[in-house]
Amino acid sequence: MTIQLLELPYAINALEPYISSKTLEFHYGKHHAAYVKNVNEMVVDTPFANATLEEIIAQVSGKPEYQGLFNNAAQAWNHTFFWNSLTPVPENKKIPPVLLEKINVSFGSLDGFKETFKKAAVSQFGSGWAWLVSDKGNLKIVTTSNAGTPITSGLTPLLCIDVWEHAYYLDYQNRRPDFAGTTIDNLLNWKFALENYQK
Ligand code: MN3
Fold it and tell me: What does pTM read for this prediction?
């Protein structure tokens, strides 16, 4: 079995003006594609040759001898999740009432959620990810370093933002706060978040 690169769920320029087609050409077309290619090369003639990405991640997480495979598999998975966390479709950007209620419980208000999510994205030192997760039905914001992914901690991710520099440098240079704030305000796919929450 070969791990497939997710087909981008929108046109390469669909996230403009917030994320440029140039960024997607590199971030999706080069970075994400490379993680997928690396996984496929690394699992040849191993017990993981027929495993799904989720199975690989679960089986090699925390094992130093498989750090390289974990990094590439988790990055491949995280990026698929990231592209699905974003949407150009206005209908998908509406926050479903059930999630808004949960947001109010966990963060006090929608603004409180946005502030907490942005702060997490900005304060993650170096490369990593900021996530909105469900922890047994309660919404939380967590961050992971490098290729880290909350699915190894028993959390259910709802949305994520990639805060590796390659995610924003072409459009925002060093201004990670602007990238995070713009993404949170304009691109989050709450339809996808709800689908994940209901799993
Ligand atoms: Mn990335």
Answer: 0.97
